[in-house]
């Protein structure tokens, strides 16, 4: 059975990255510690490993305190709240906004799911992951989501309290008391590993003061693909490697770590799918090189360096192997 690399859009990190930058925190060091040095707020759609994002959240929690998720959301606009904010802003009510987020989630993360249970008195939102994270990381991630939902609810005309109940995984040391100033006394320990939020109908159906441009269409037609890719390990590896090539040459050690596997297991599972790391890297380089050559926006020497070739001659040999022509010949043919 295929076990793809768990992936999420870099947009999930953008609010925290901007908060850290604005507050003079060592963003670059924290990114490097999580093997995310290639991530930038300028590329929010970049697929990145969930396990690396988990490491970043865990390190941020240890450096900044267990309420870091709530603090970041409190200083972030709705538009900056990753996919959740952008998709939800096209809705007319919180109920519709939450439904939109649940529907768009496969385009944002390959291992996250939101299930909505509705009844006459309101709705219950349950958010969970198909992979297991440690309690400290899960606590930070869940408070981030709960705070974001609370911000969305606050955009309606409903009077407080906006949330009836929040069931969340406690911090393994600090518990939940540190969230009282942010989320109030409605936060209680979760019965499972999932985040559960209960919202009354009077809040869920209260109209938003303003209805923004419908961003659901953007998610559907901007060329984004589901984070699960084609459901294979190789497919998820290609997605990750293509993004990493923007700033560095991916290694098999990085890919194996992103998959939560040893290098030997990673190699074996790729072999079971009829491929290998070197073949995948060649495929990704092929697609990136031909795209950039056609665009003519970078020099060939810059392109060869960005793709991890030691010399421009190596890029030339690779392109001739792929197409039967040199990069210069390809560019000349397009001009003609």
Task: Describe the overall structure.
This protein has 336 residues and is of the alpha+beta class. It is built from 17 helices and seven strands. The chain has helices spanning 14-22, 27-33, 50-64, 68-74, 82-88, 94-104, 135-154, 180-183, 201-204, 216-221, 233-244, 252-259, 263-272, 277-295, 300-306, 312-323, 327-335; strands at residues 7-9, 47-49, 112-119, 122-129, 165-168, 187-189, 195-200. The strands form two sheets. It has a five-stranded mixed β-sheet. Strand 3 and strand 4 (122-129) form a beta hairpin. Helix 3 crosses helix 7, helix 4 (68-74) packs parallel to helix 7 and helix 15 packs across helix 16. The chain is elongated.
Strand tally: 7
Derived structural class:
alpha+beta
Order of helices and strands: EHHEHHHHEEHEHEEHHHHHHHHH
For the largest sheet, list the strands in their spatial order. 3-4-7-5-6
Helix content: 40-55%
Which stretches are poorly predicted, pLDDT < 50 over at least 5 residues?
A: 214-221
- Round the mean pLDDT to the nearest integer and report it: 87
Distance between the termini: 48 Å
Major β-sheet profile: 5 strands, mixed
| Beta-strand proportion | 5-15%
| DSSP helical segment count | 17
The outline comes out as elongated
- CA radius of gyration: 22 Å
């Amino acid at each position: 059975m295929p076990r793809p690399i768990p992936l999420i859009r870099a947009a999930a990190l953008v609010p925290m990255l901007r908060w850290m930058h604005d507050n003079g925190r060592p963003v670059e060091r924290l990114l490097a510690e999580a093997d995310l040095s290639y991530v930038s707020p300028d590329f929010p759609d970049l697929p990145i490993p969930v396990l690396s994002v988990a490491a970043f959240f865990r390190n941020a929690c240890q450096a900044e305190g267990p309420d870091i998720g709530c603090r970041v959301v409190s200083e972030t606009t709705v538009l900056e709240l990753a996919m959740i904010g952008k998709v939800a802003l096209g809705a007319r009510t919180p109920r519709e906004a939450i439904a939109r987020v649940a529907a768009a989630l496969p385009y944002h993360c390959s291992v996250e799911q939101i299930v909505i249970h509705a009844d006459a008195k309101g709705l219950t939102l349950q958010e969970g992951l198909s992979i297991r994270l440690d309690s400290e990381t899960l606590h930070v991630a869940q408070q981030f989501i709960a705070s974001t939902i609370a911000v969305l609810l606050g955009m309606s005309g409903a009077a407080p309290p906006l949330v009836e109940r929040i069931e969340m995984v406690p911090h393994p040391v600090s518990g939940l008391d540190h969230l009282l100033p942010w989320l109030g006394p409605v936060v209680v320990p979760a019965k499972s590993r999932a985040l559960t939020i209960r919202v009354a109908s009077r809040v869920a159906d209260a109209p938003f003061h303003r209805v923004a441009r419908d961003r659901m269409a953007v998610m559907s037609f901007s060329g984004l693909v589901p984070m699960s890719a084609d459901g294979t390990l190789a497919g998820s590896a290609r997605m990750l490697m293509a993004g990493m090539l923007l700033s560095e040459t991916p290694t098999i050690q990085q890919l194996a770590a992103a998959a939560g596997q040893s290098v030997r297991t990673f190699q074996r599972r790729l072999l079971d799918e009829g491929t290998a790391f070197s073949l995948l890297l060649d495929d990704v380089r092929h697609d990136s090189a031909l795209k950039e050559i056609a665009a003519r926006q970078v020099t060939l020497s810059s392109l060869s360096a960005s793709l991890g070739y030691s010399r421009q001659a190596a890029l030339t040999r690779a392109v001739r192997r792929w197409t039967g022509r040199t990069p210069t010949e390809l560019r000349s043919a397009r001009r003609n």
